[in-house]
Design brief:
alpha/beta, Metallo-beta-lactamase, Chain A, Arc Repressor Mutant, subunit A, seven-stranded mixed beta sheet, five-stranded mixed beta sheet, 14 strands, zinc, hydrolase, LACTB2-like_MBL-fold, hydrolase activity
Amino acid sequence: MRAVRTATSTYKMAVQLAQLPEVERLSPTCIRILGGNPGKFTLQGTNTYLLGTGPNRLLIDTGEGKPHWISVLKRTLAEEKAHITHALLTHWHHDHVSGVQDLLSISPDTKVFKNQPESGQLDITDGQKFEVEGATLTAVHTPGHTVDHMVFLLAEEDAMFTADNVLGHGTAVFEDLGTYLNSLEKMKPLFKGRAYPGHGPVLGDGPAKIAEYIHHRRQREEQVIQTLKSNKGDVSAAGAEDDAWDVMELVKIIYQDVPDTLHPAAAGGVIQVLRKLEKEGKVSLEDGRWRLRGRRSPL
């Protein structure tokens, strides 16, 4: 699954994407190599990161298997006179892991690590450290976008590689909103510097962007609650006012500023909010329609 954006952010991003070079040294220890897979879901392409200052390097993510990516990576390694000892996969989505076999074709001795590893891979655990000259990474398990999602702290810069939990443009989707928010809260106090995202440009103040993400999600949740509280004005067949809403009715109110063609995409985020509220006992689902608990059904 790709790092899909919300409807609002997808709508705004059409004219906001900055041009990024296919290879860019972002700091003395970090080189970003784009995955060669730009698109509306992957932005400028998947960010892969080559880390270290000596002959041994770490690699974060491998793109989605585009021939251009492995060609650029091979050229960069030759220029750096370096090789990759460890490849760290942030999560299972194909645009982050599908270049593994290409990597092993040019670097068969590279050890590949992933939380919940697949055949031939090694496990990443919460708190595990990876170190080469110039780069010390600590893995942090941050599920929500996916159950296996990991971020990495870079000690030398007090920075974080945020993968798809925090992006350089827009906002990310998630498998479980409550778990995702917990992970964002976990990430925010762990560093003070940059965020290197899975897609899009570097974020200068990573914790501030995470706080912005948390605020945005809480705001969406409040919008759903307030809409459920509002008076629909509908009357049921029994003659009583019906205060139950289906998902698309909620979307049309909450996403009034977004074209109708993007409402189906927005519905996914609204459903996630409703499921979180349902787990918390704040809303109920009856016959495909949602209402706040404590509000009476029509007679």
